[in-house]
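Example record

Each entry pairs one chain with its bound ligand, C2E.
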Amino acid sequence: RVKEATHNDFRFFTTEMQAHSARTLQLANALRHALSRNELYLLYQPQISMDGHVIGVEALLRWQHPQLGLISPAEFIPVAEDSGQIIQIGEWVMRTAAKQLKAWMDSGLPPMMVAVNLSAAQFRQSNLVELVTSILDETQLPPKLLEIELTEAVAMDDPQAAIAVMDKLHENNIKMSIDDFGTGYSSLNYLKRFKVYKLKIDQSFIRDIPQDAEDKAIVTAIINMASSLGMHTIAEGVETADQLAFLRLQGCSEVQGYYFSKPIPPEQITQFVRNSNRSLAQ
Ligand code: C2E
Ligand code: MG
Ligand code: MG
Ligand code: MG
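Structure tokens for the complex follow.
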């Protein structure tokens, strides 16, 4: 009886695995044409300072496939990582985001930052810093307006490499922030050696504020530690006025989340920035 159950579990498992790899293969194949067929695009999510200014936007990648529909980055980024396509896609993301910010500023929007997410494979690229600086040259975007987000998990997977990359980016006036902070087992010994501009507090710690006392304690500790180390903090996934009030009280520098705006197309960012500046002026 035990044996039979094991046997069935095993068959179920392999069927699941086959379905999974069929989808993965389908996505990997379709992804090869995604850039040339203009199926990829960027949305931008505003990042807001505690006095209500839009201080920057995070570029978030989307893939609209004609048959498969809208595919989440959580699903296709790992596929692009495994197939190596993330290198080309990541370069496109950075160039597109840099061009977009330059265009916003040329059209009269006040200077702000643009943040792009860096994948593990891009982080390991030996010519990463050269690539970033050449994109900045080409787009004429001032380096200090570009922010590169690396997840805590990727940074801590190879901290020596992370230190080297951060040092080089810092020499070139490019900012680096640690994404999903709190989920990746940071060694504080390394964290103090990282040239990090900002810690992005993972949204899993924000979700249950103000009910969850432990999450509140963790968030407070992160904000205080970052501030002592001279780093900014931004809370991800802010959805309510109560969460905002708590974060403001604790001295969190910036916030990002549906409470202010979902990720939106570039045309809507223009409107969002103008509206928020107008409401501040009143
Ligand atoms: P992330 O960089 O941590 O981005 C934050 C995610 O939280 C985004 O999901 C965003 O839409 C979502 N979010 C923002 N505010 C809220 C909120 O108030 N509530 C909730 N529930 N969610 C919120 P998205 O756009 O689906 O991206 C998921 C992940 O995919 C990103 O997490 C990032 O790791 C990855 N990703 C997205 N674009 C890129 C890219 O261009 N390159 C790379 N390498 N990864 C990317
Ligand atoms: Mg991010
Ligand atoms: Mg995050
Ligand atoms: Mg994430």
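The CA atoms of residues 36 and 66 lie 14 Å apart.
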